[in-house]
Amino acid sequence: MIGPGRPLFVLFGSSIVQFSYINQGWGAILADIYARKADILLRGYAGWNSKQALKVLHLVFPKDAVVQPSLVIVYFGGNDSAAPTPSGLGPHVPLPEYIDNMKKIALHLKGLSDKTRVMFLSAPAVSEEQIAQTLGITGRSNEASRIYSEACLKLCEELDVKCVDLWTALQQRNDWKTACFTDGIHLTPEGSKLVIKEILKALREAEWKPSLYWRSLPTEFEEHSVYDGKNAINISDVEFSRCVKWE
Question: Is 183 labeled as catalytic in the residue annotation?
């Protein structure tokens, strides 16, 4: 550990998480927004489903860790929603098992500490046409994604866990099928912008004490710098370098 201590945010999920730092991804954007406010830790495992996540949950999030996360953002569901194969191999997890797995993940994370908050990202929309054109695979459908997304949302409501509806969020644009994905599944910069917008909204609206919304957190070693001899500028909070102004 290095100091001084900041809130720790962990991103835990499959490829939507692992790849969230490339192509101007939502993880990289989150790290930039929370610079000098919180540390963002990536635990992404491309190709994984909720069953695989559950098997390593106690290793990634041990209950006896000295430092526990302030926030864990969890994404599993896209791979789970893939159609089953005749061989029984592949990432598919039946809906009832998926719900049970996600419930166990949520309860484990909520039990890490009194101050650990949990946010789920539901299964996102997918572009079936683009998947066929770029990946040449079958078995992923937007309808299946909707079913798993709604199941995640319902579970989170029952468990009092914040949930971002990615299935709806990614379809806000009329051109979402071509603008939001690199291959029909994984996100372009435009897709990531929609994701981070919804995450920030959820953090802003959460009634957590203390708040984890970025504008509510203190800036580490905040200072005012004098550049022209008389006018002080709080350079630690200047946002002029960002092309997008986030709320």
Answer: yes
175 is catalytic: no
In whole angstroms, give the CA distance from residue 122 to residue 23.
Answer: 21
Q: Is pTM beyond 0.85 here?
A: yes
Token digits of residue 38:
């919180």
Query: Does 49 score more than 80 pLDDT?
Result: yes
Q: State the Cα–Cα distance between residues 145 and 166, nearest whole angstrom.
A: 10
CB 30 within 8 A of CB 44: no
- Spatial distance between the Cα atoms of 178 and 129, rounded to a whole number of angstroms: 9
List C-alpha distances in Å: 72 to 88, 166, 198: 31, 17, 15
The residue-averaged pLDDT of 159-178 equals 96
> Which entry of 100, 183, 192, 237 is annotated as an active-site residue?
183
Scanning the structure block, which residue is given the tokens 């299964």?
Answer: 123
Q: What is the distance between the alpha carbons of residues 7 and 68, in angstroms, rounded to a whole number?
A: 9
Q: How many residues does the chain have?
A: 247
Give tens-digit pLDDT for 70-121. 999 999 999 999 999 888 888 999 999 999 999 999 999 999 999 999 999 9
Whole-number pLDDT of residue 46: 97
| Dist CA 131 CA 139 (whole Å) | 10
The pLDDT of 214-220, averaged and rounded, is 93
Say which of 14, 81, 149, 192 is annotated catalytic: 14
Give CA torsion, residues 90, 24, 180, 202, to 10 deg.
90
Phi, psi for residue 3 in degrees, rounded to 5: -115, 175
